[in-house]
Structures are given as C-alpha cells and as structure tokens.
Amino acid sequence: MQRRLVLVRHGQSEWNLKNLFTGWKDPDLTERGVEEAIEAGRRLKAEGIVFDAAFTSKLKRAQRTNQLILNELGQRTLPVVEDEALNERDYGELTGLNKDEARKTWGEQKVLMWRRSYDVPPPGGESLRDTVARTLPYFVREILPVVLQGKTTLVTAHGNSLRALIMTLERLTPDELLRRELFTGAPIIYEVNADSTIESWKDLAGSPAAAS
Ligand SMILES: O=C(O)[C@H](O)COP(=O)(O)O
C-alpha cells in the first residue's frame, strides 16, 4: 500500500516580500506567491500525484496556496480541513518588524536563535518547541491516521509549523534543524512506512533523499 504525505510551504506572501516577521498575521499571497503555488501544483501533477485528503491552517496564505495546488490538479472540490494547529509559529513582539532591522537592533546571532533554534522563544512568542507542542499532536491525531490508511495527503502550511513536523519526520537534531530551510511553494513528498517511519522523501526544491 502506498502511504504518501506531501508538505508544502505557502507561496510568497505580501509580508515575505516586505521581509516582515509574520507569524499569526494574515497577509495574502503576492503575484509571485500565486505563481509559486500554481507551479507547485504543476510539479505534483508531473509526479502523478492525486490527493485523497488535504489539510491547511487558518491563515489565508496557506489556504490559497492549498486551493491553487488542488485547482492545478483538477481537484478543486476535494474537502479541505482547516485548523489553527497548523498556523505559523507565533512571532510575539517581533510580529510586523523588519527582519534586517531586527538584526541591526539585536544582532545576527540573537535573531538567528529566535528564528531557527529549537528552544529559544522570540519575546512574547513561541519557540519551535512550543510550535511542535501545538502542531505534532494534531498531526498524530488527525493527519497521520489518514496517511496510514493509504490516502495521499496534502498539508499546506508555514515555514515553522512544517519545520516542527519535519524535525520529527526526518529525525533531525536541533542542530540539523537550525540549517533546515523551507522554500515558499516547494513540495516535499514523503513515502511513509506502515509503522509511520519515513521510507524516503523527495524535496521538489532539491534532490531526492533517503531516511537515515
Ligand atoms: O512568520 C514569518 O515571518 C515567516 O513565515 C517565517 O519566518 P522565518 O523564516 O523568519 O521563521
């Protein structure tokens, strides 16, 4: 039985373009973001993917990306489950600030820790560990059982809510996680074993990889 899980970070948002910390704010996709979402759909079509289930967050940039992908696959009527468990990490007091300005104010290292470390929260916001605590139980309860039934499943979400899942799926250490970047609109296809470990994955932004 084939058990397939596809994760996609939303296409470029208006606040990605302006280089602002976004978190739970709800900007729309830019034109480029729309194109990236359509391109994600095209790439998935070229891989022969047909979805049986789809999940996304409560934020517009992910929902639109999800819908554009499904449209491209000719699956615009597939039911989509929306849940805030898949929302972006809450960036707290950094929300709305420019990322370069933040580096000037607090220094490269501190901002890198807030953005990419596992357990250092930005002021008033969620660390990645907090995001894992929100996202992973939802994944295990609602999404994984669907994948294990053999349903090809799409999850369209956000850089950090997906990094929270990827850390577990790819068994990354906090140090490896620091370097794990997700590109907007780039699908990652996981082949999942019956015991819910990962058999292999293919990042359509890069080259094929195997689980270690
Ligand atoms: O919320 C945001 O600002 C972005 O979607 C992700 O930002 P990051 O790459 O700074 O974590």
Automatic annotation (TrEMBL):
HAMAP family: PGAM_GpmA (MF_01039). SUPFAM superfamilies: Phosphoglycerate mutase-like. It comes from the Bacteria. InterPro entries: His_Pase_superF_clade-1, His_PPase_superfam, PG/BPGM_mutase_AS, Phosphogly_mut1. Keywords: Gluconeogenesis, Glycolysis, Isomerase. Catalyzes the interconversion of 2-phosphoglycerate and 3-phosphoglycerate. Pathway: Carbohydrate degradation; glycolysis; pyruvate from D-glyceraldehyde 3-phosphate: step 3/5. Substrate binds at residues 9-16, 22-23, 61, 88-91, 99, 115-116, 159-160. The gene is gpmA. The active site is at H10, E88. It catalyses: (2R)-2-phosphoglycerate = (2R)-3-phosphoglycerate. Belongs to the phosphoglycerate mutase family. BPG-dependent PGAM subfamily. The record marks H158 as: Transition state stabilizer. Its EC number is 5.4.2.11. It holds the Pfam family His_Phos_1. This is 2,3-bisphosphoglycerate-dependent phosphoglycerate mutase.
